[in-house]
Amino acid sequence: MQNQDCLQMFESYLRDEKKASANTLSSYLRDVRQYGEYLDLHTECGIVDAGEEEASEYINWLKSSGKSVATVSRCIASLKNLYSFLCLRQITKSNPAAKLVSDKGVQKLPQILTSREVELLLEQPECVDAKGYRDRAMLELLYATGMRVTELIDLNIGDVNLGAGVIRCESRGKERFVPMYPAAIKALSEYIELVRPQMLALPDEEALFVNVSGERMSRQGFWKIIKYYQKKAKIDKDITPHTLRHSFAAHLLENGADIHAIQEMLGHADISSTQVYSHLVKKQLKDVYNKAHPRA
Fold first, then answer.
1. Which of 89, 114, 136, 146 could form a disulfide with 248 if both were Cys (CB 3.0 to 4.6 A apart)?
2. For residue 200, what is the DSSP state?
3. Residue 296 confidence (pLDDT) above 60
């Protein structure tokens, strides 16, 4: 079986059976395509007949190319999933990636903004035109709910319940309802009532947030918005859409929120994904102690 055939089957499996998110699908396919290209260039075998030696040599090649621990670990996970699928379909008899082990790198804690930096960022959009109202609503909503940027741009007008102060969020086939604080409700209400109808290209457009062409906002479009307001706010930290998600979780934890409640609001399937914020808060407390205590 040709590499391309394997990859097409794997893509269909991830999309149609596993219901993988767009980001997961993109990452896995990028990793396994690169693996297939490596085999074509450096070996005489394809994906189906590669063995443990070829898989191991590929990972060593990634490391020697200067790839980060996180990137190599993700590639290992991608290969294991690919070969698990091929074994499941009885296309291969064994998983040559089964014995690959990720390096125990130092866990990189996510960067967060201080409460003051968040306020500064949220203050930047000026409600003097449609774009200002829209941008303020998007930033407020992202920090109010901690949702992923993909979830934010996938929102439809029907997902909003301003009266109840909650928003419906769907990811990977699961839905959750996340509350919003009053400032976010106000910003979203003003955008929906005053601005959105004027921005729509078509009156039956379902997308909650639209671009200047009146169509659904893209990830790239929102990324540019974040970068624009970071520069305007003169915040030195490298802010991404995920930075507000991290800040949302860490600030809730700092103020005594239950970690299981935060897990539910973030939509984490595994509590371990949420516990990283506990490590982050502890590290910040330690940093404050070391800077402030006279005998530290």
1. 146
2. -
3. no
